[in-house]
Amino acid sequence: MPRDKTESHIRIVEAAKKEFLKYGFTDASLRRIASEAKIQVSGLYKHFSSKEDMFESLVKPVVEGFYDLYSRIEGEYFGDIERVVKAHDWEGMGETVRAMEYMYDHLDEFVLIVMKSQGTKYEDFTHEIAELEEEVTLRYMDQLKKAGFPVKDFDRNEFHLLVTAFVDALFLPLSHGFTKEEALHYTRTLEEFYEPAWKAWFGI
Predict the structure, then answer these.
(1) Domain boundaries along the sequence of the chain
(2) Which of 28, 105, 108, 157 is deepest in the core (most CB within 10 A)?
(3) The model's pTM
(4) What value does the CA radius of gyration of the chain take, rounded to a whole number of Å?
Protein backbone atom coordinates (compact mmCIF):
# COMPACT_ATOMS: atom_id res chain seq x y z
CA MET A 1 0.00 0.00 0.00
CA PRO A 2 1.46 3.43 -0.91
CA ARG A 3 2.42 5.56 2.06
CA ASP A 4 0.45 8.71 2.83
CA LYS A 5 2.11 11.80 1.32
CA THR A 6 0.13 14.44 3.20
CA GLU A 7 1.91 17.27 4.97
CA SER A 8 1.24 15.77 8.40
CA HIS A 9 2.66 12.41 7.31
CA ILE A 10 5.81 14.07 6.01
CA ARG A 11 6.24 15.92 9.31
CA ILE A 12 5.84 12.65 11.24
CA VAL A 13 8.43 10.86 9.10
CA GLU A 14 10.94 13.70 9.51
CA ALA A 15 10.33 13.84 13.27
CA ALA A 16 10.63 10.06 13.58
CA LYS A 17 13.94 9.96 11.75
CA LYS A 18 15.30 12.75 13.96
CA GLU A 19 14.11 10.94 17.11
CA PHE A 20 15.45 7.51 16.12
CA LEU A 21 18.82 8.96 15.08
CA LYS A 22 19.18 10.69 18.42
CA TYR A 23 17.79 8.08 20.80
CA GLY A 24 17.69 4.78 18.91
CA PHE A 25 14.57 2.68 18.53
CA THR A 26 14.33 1.46 22.14
CA ASP A 27 14.53 4.89 23.78
CA ALA A 28 12.65 6.80 21.10
CA SER A 29 9.49 8.49 22.38
CA LEU A 30 6.25 8.64 20.44
CA ARG A 31 5.32 11.64 22.56
CA ARG A 32 8.41 13.54 21.41
CA ILE A 33 7.80 12.51 17.81
CA ALA A 34 4.22 13.74 18.00
CA SER A 35 5.31 17.00 19.59
CA GLU A 36 7.97 17.57 16.92
CA ALA A 37 5.44 16.79 14.19
CA LYS A 38 2.83 19.07 15.84
CA ILE A 39 0.27 16.31 16.15
CA GLN A 40 -1.42 14.40 18.97
CA VAL A 41 0.11 11.04 19.92
CA SER A 42 -3.15 9.35 18.97
CA GLY A 43 -2.82 10.90 15.53
CA LEU A 44 0.36 8.95 14.89
CA TYR A 45 -1.67 5.75 14.70
CA LYS A 46 -3.56 7.08 11.70
CA HIS A 47 -0.24 6.85 9.83
CA PHE A 48 1.64 3.97 11.52
CA SER A 49 0.40 0.96 13.44
CA SER A 50 3.33 0.99 15.89
CA LYS A 51 6.71 2.48 16.67
CA GLU A 52 8.36 -0.44 14.88
CA ASP A 53 6.19 0.14 11.81
CA MET A 54 7.39 3.74 11.86
CA PHE A 55 11.04 2.65 12.10
CA GLU A 56 10.60 0.07 9.36
CA SER A 57 9.11 2.64 7.01
CA LEU A 58 12.41 4.54 7.21
CA VAL A 59 14.79 1.64 6.62
CA LYS A 60 12.98 -1.12 4.72
CA PRO A 61 13.38 0.36 1.19
CA VAL A 62 17.10 0.88 1.79
CA VAL A 63 17.58 -2.66 3.13
CA GLU A 64 15.80 -4.05 0.08
CA GLY A 65 18.02 -1.95 -2.17
CA PHE A 66 21.13 -3.28 -0.42
CA TYR A 67 20.05 -6.87 -0.96
CA ASP A 68 19.30 -6.08 -4.61
CA LEU A 69 22.83 -4.71 -5.01
CA TYR A 70 24.25 -7.81 -3.33
CA SER A 71 22.27 -10.04 -5.68
CA ARG A 72 23.58 -8.21 -8.76
CA ILE A 73 27.17 -8.53 -7.57
CA GLU A 74 26.62 -12.22 -6.80
CA GLY A 75 25.39 -12.71 -10.36
CA GLU A 76 28.49 -11.01 -11.73
CA TYR A 77 30.76 -13.33 -9.75
CA PHE A 78 29.01 -16.52 -10.80
CA GLY A 79 28.81 -15.30 -14.38
CA ASP A 80 32.59 -14.80 -14.39
CA ILE A 81 33.57 -18.31 -13.25
CA GLU A 82 34.47 -19.57 -16.73
CA ARG A 83 36.85 -16.65 -17.31
CA VAL A 84 38.46 -17.12 -13.88
CA VAL A 85 39.12 -20.80 -14.57
CA LYS A 86 40.50 -20.20 -18.06
CA ALA A 87 42.74 -17.33 -17.01
CA HIS A 88 43.65 -18.99 -13.70
CA ASP A 89 43.20 -15.58 -12.16
CA TRP A 90 40.71 -14.01 -9.80
CA GLU A 91 39.97 -10.42 -8.99
CA GLY A 92 37.24 -8.67 -7.06
CA MET A 93 34.30 -6.87 -8.64
CA GLY A 94 34.78 -3.73 -6.57
CA GLU A 95 31.87 -4.91 -4.47
CA THR A 96 33.16 -3.42 -1.23
CA VAL A 97 33.41 0.06 -2.70
CA ARG A 98 30.00 -0.31 -4.34
CA ALA A 99 28.46 -1.36 -1.03
CA MET A 100 30.07 1.56 0.78
CA GLU A 101 28.88 4.02 -1.85
CA TYR A 102 25.35 2.70 -1.44
CA MET A 103 25.53 2.98 2.34
CA TYR A 104 26.75 6.57 2.21
CA ASP A 105 24.13 7.48 -0.38
CA HIS A 106 21.62 6.42 2.33
CA LEU A 107 23.68 7.40 5.35
CA ASP A 108 20.94 8.22 7.86
CA GLU A 109 19.11 5.00 7.11
CA PHE A 110 22.25 2.89 7.57
CA VAL A 111 23.09 4.62 10.83
CA LEU A 112 19.60 3.65 11.96
CA ILE A 113 20.02 0.06 10.78
CA VAL A 114 23.52 -0.57 12.10
CA MET A 115 23.59 1.56 15.25
CA LYS A 116 20.03 2.38 16.31
CA SER A 117 17.92 -0.69 15.55
CA GLN A 118 18.14 -2.64 18.82
CA GLY A 119 14.66 -3.90 19.64
CA THR A 120 13.61 -4.24 16.00
CA LYS A 121 13.90 -7.06 13.48
CA TYR A 122 16.83 -5.18 11.95
CA GLU A 123 19.09 -5.44 15.00
CA ASP A 124 20.86 -8.50 13.54
CA PHE A 125 21.30 -6.98 10.09
CA THR A 126 25.11 -7.13 10.01
CA HIS A 127 25.05 -10.71 11.30
CA GLU A 128 22.58 -11.67 8.58
CA ILE A 129 24.81 -10.08 5.94
CA ALA A 130 27.78 -12.04 7.29
CA GLU A 131 25.79 -15.29 7.07
CA LEU A 132 24.76 -14.47 3.52
CA GLU A 133 28.34 -13.62 2.55
CA GLU A 134 29.56 -16.90 4.02
CA GLU A 135 26.89 -18.96 2.25
CA VAL A 136 27.41 -17.29 -1.14
CA THR A 137 31.22 -17.43 -0.92
CA LEU A 138 31.19 -21.13 -0.05
CA ARG A 139 28.87 -21.82 -2.97
CA TYR A 140 31.11 -19.77 -5.27
CA MET A 141 34.23 -21.61 -4.14
CA ASP A 142 32.44 -24.94 -4.62
CA GLN A 143 31.61 -23.97 -8.21
CA LEU A 144 35.25 -23.03 -8.82
CA LYS A 145 36.36 -26.41 -7.47
CA LYS A 146 33.92 -28.26 -9.71
CA ALA A 147 35.31 -26.31 -12.68
CA GLY A 148 38.84 -27.48 -11.83
CA PHE A 149 40.10 -24.42 -9.98
CA PRO A 150 42.56 -25.34 -7.18
CA VAL A 151 40.65 -23.87 -4.24
CA LYS A 152 42.41 -24.82 -1.02
CA ASP A 153 40.79 -26.67 1.85
CA PHE A 154 40.20 -24.64 4.99
CA ASP A 155 38.76 -24.89 8.46
CA ARG A 156 35.06 -23.93 8.33
CA ASN A 157 35.08 -22.38 11.80
CA GLU A 158 38.03 -20.19 10.89
CA PHE A 159 36.34 -19.27 7.61
CA HIS A 160 33.22 -18.21 9.51
CA LEU A 161 35.23 -15.98 11.82
CA LEU A 162 37.20 -14.38 8.98
CA VAL A 163 34.12 -13.64 6.87
CA THR A 164 32.35 -12.20 9.90
CA ALA A 165 35.37 -10.02 10.67
CA PHE A 166 35.38 -8.73 7.09
CA VAL A 167 31.66 -7.85 7.15
CA ASP A 168 31.96 -6.20 10.55
CA ALA A 169 34.89 -4.17 9.21
CA LEU A 170 32.79 -3.00 6.27
CA PHE A 171 30.29 -1.29 8.56
CA LEU A 172 32.81 0.28 10.97
CA PRO A 173 33.06 3.68 9.19
CA LEU A 174 29.42 4.32 10.16
CA SER A 175 30.10 4.02 13.89
CA HIS A 176 33.35 6.00 13.57
CA GLY A 177 31.72 8.97 11.87
CA PHE A 178 33.75 8.76 8.66
CA THR A 179 32.88 11.07 5.81
CA LYS A 180 32.04 9.41 2.51
CA GLU A 181 35.50 10.26 1.17
CA GLU A 182 37.19 8.78 4.22
CA ALA A 183 34.98 5.69 4.09
CA LEU A 184 35.74 5.03 0.41
CA HIS A 185 39.48 5.40 1.01
CA TYR A 186 39.23 2.96 3.93
CA THR A 187 37.21 0.55 1.78
CA ARG A 188 39.88 0.42 -0.90
CA THR A 189 42.44 -0.25 1.84
CA LEU A 190 40.20 -3.03 3.15
CA GLU A 191 40.05 -4.62 -0.31
CA GLU A 192 43.85 -4.41 -0.66
CA PHE A 193 44.21 -6.02 2.75
CA TYR A 194 41.88 -8.97 2.07
CA GLU A 195 42.53 -9.64 -1.62
CA PRO A 196 45.89 -11.43 -1.14
CA ALA A 197 44.20 -13.73 1.39
CA TRP A 198 41.39 -14.60 -1.00
CA LYS A 199 43.89 -15.26 -3.78
CA ALA A 200 45.90 -17.52 -1.47
CA TRP A 201 42.78 -19.55 -0.71
CA PHE A 202 41.97 -19.72 -4.39
CA GLY A 203 45.45 -21.10 -5.09
CA ILE A 204 46.68 -18.13 -7.11
Answers:
(1) 1-48, 59-201
(2) 28
(3) 0.91
(4) 21
